[in-house]
Amino acid sequence: ELGDYSHYMQKEIFEQPQALSNTLEMISGAGQLQPGIFGAEAADIFPQVDSVLIIACGTSSYAGLTAKYWIEQVAGIACNVEIASEYRYRQSVANPKQLVVVISQSGETADTLAALHHAKAQGHTYTLAICNVPESAIVRETALRFITRAGPEIGVASTKAFTTQLSALFLLTLLLAKANHRLSEDDEKAYLDELRHLPIAVDKVLALEPSIQAWSNHFANKHHALFLGRGRHYPIALEGALKLKEISYIHAEAYPAGELKHGPLALVDSEMPVVVVAPNDEMLEKLKANMQEVSARGGQLYVFADGGSAVKPSDGVHVLQMPEHYGLLSPVLHVVALQLLSYHVALVKGTDVDKPRNLAKSVTVE
Ligand code: F6R
């Protein structure tokens, strides 16, 4: 079943262009999005929604955190993200006009399911599941649903489920923006074109595997790594750090780069590689100043730049040049590069990539 691949994780990373085009199949020829792709009731519910609450665990929660940046910017609707195991036991204030979105690859995660039950018990009726398993528990209990078509994910570390969740969340963003009269027809067409082109854009990142692999030796003998990002790429730094710790057992932490001065800068020395997600977006100049703070303390930077980022390699500054900047959807491309980094670091370390110690694919107990 593995074909030419060494591990399921590698296979699943490389399946992402196909997983994305399968998930986005319904827009292949569409000039306009229809809310019905989220369920028959979506056309009635979306115009009523005054805020969004996203609930999930682990990688799925980072998809939610990325979507928070999209939903607030594009749809102009307030969005918060909560970890399911916290939300389910927290005394929160329910708002019946809030759309509660649960995200889960498996659809069986105990905390996410319990959080959904908690939301419903509090009176939430606008509920939406984004899930990769159509017959799973979570999908059966929401008013609305979107099934990602990543196909079975065998590797414990989530890869293609994450990027397809992101594509579903971008569709949701566009539909909420439409319902909120914030999306012109021209912008809708342009965003749909970018989504349709996404599989090809991901292919170009996959082609960078040899250069990313070349970095893996720099990480394999380290005990710690720091991941930095800003704006919609901060959640991608979080996901990159999670991937590295899960499969290579290297302690990795992610910070929004603006927080460096507030503590983590004290950790920086030449023994802790600092990975920077540095696309050419509106936060780049701020990020470059943060990179300078790291360099000035002898830190080793590993920078994922893209077209126009113009980060020059130098002593202590390693630069991977990604393809042209991809705007709002750029997180989808940058996470693929970080998946490949963690995969290759784990290969050098010889860990069990597909079944990391102490972890289970589906966390059906609390
Ligand atoms: C990380 C990973 C986990 C899952 C989490 C939620 O690579 O796989 O963090 O994302 O256990 O699982 P689902 O999405 O099935 O609810």
Automatic annotation (TrEMBL):
Where does the UniProt annotation locate this protein?
Cytoplasm
EC number(s) of the enzyme? 2.6.1.16
> Which residues does the Swiss-Prot or TrEMBL record annotate as the active site?
K361 (for fru-6p isomerization activity)
Query: Biological process GO terms, please?
Result: amino sugar biosynthetic process; carbohydrate metabolic process; fructose 6-phosphate metabolic process; protein N-linked glycosylation; UDP-N-acetylglucosamine metabolic process
According to the record, the signal peptide region is none
User: Which stretches make up the SIS domain?
Assistant: 42-182, 215-356
Q: Which reaction does it catalyse?
A: D-fructose 6-phosphate + L-glutamine = D-glucosamine 6-phosphate + L-glutamate
Q: Which enzyme class, named as a word?
A: transferase
Give the principal location in a single coarse category: cytoplasm
Give GO terms: molecular function aspect only.
carbohydrate derivative binding; glutamine-fructose-6-phosphate transaminase (isomerizing) activity
Q: Mitochondrion: present as a keyword of the record? A: no
Q: Which GO terms describe its cellular component?
A: cytosol
* Keywords for the protein's UniProt record, in alphabetical order: Aminotransferase, Cytoplasm, Glutamine amidotransferase, Repeat, Transferase
Q: How does it assemble?
A: Homodimer.
Main function: Catalyzes the first step in hexosamine metabolism, converting fructose-6P into glucosamine-6P using glutamine as a nitrogen source.
Q: What is this protein called?
A: Glutamine--fructose-6-phosphate aminotransferase [isomerizing]
What organism, scientifically named, is this protein from?
Vreelandella sulfidaeris
The coding gene here is glmS
